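Renewal narrative, Specific Aim 1. Our central claim is that a sequence can be written position by position from structural information alone. The example that follows is taken directly from our test logs and has not been curated for this report. It begins with the structure tokens describing the chain, in the order in which they were read.
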């Protein structure tokens, strides 16, 4: 349920911007109760923190993959 709430918030942010990510909006669009949001995440600040942490984890994995799988000719490819 926690991840579903985070995914819902991320959908709103991608579509309408971070300013529009509110607990009210999440409940209206996706049918979660406000109490469920607070139960799983505690606050809107915690929700945004969790989304940032997931984004940084994805970025880290992408960068690690790029470094691990780079070709020996990578510097030449950048020119």
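The sequence written for that structure reads:
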């Amino acid at each position: 349920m926690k991840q579903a709430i985070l995914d819902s918030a991320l959908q709103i942010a991608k579509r309408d911007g971070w300013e529009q990510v509110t607990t009210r909006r999440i409940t209206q669009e996706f049918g979660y109760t406000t109490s469920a949001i607070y139960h799983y995440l505690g606050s809107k600040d915690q929700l945004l923190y969790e989304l940032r942490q997931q984004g940084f984890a994805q970025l880290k994995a992408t960068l690690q993959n790029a470094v691990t799988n780079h070709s020996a000719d990578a510097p030449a490819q950048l020119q």
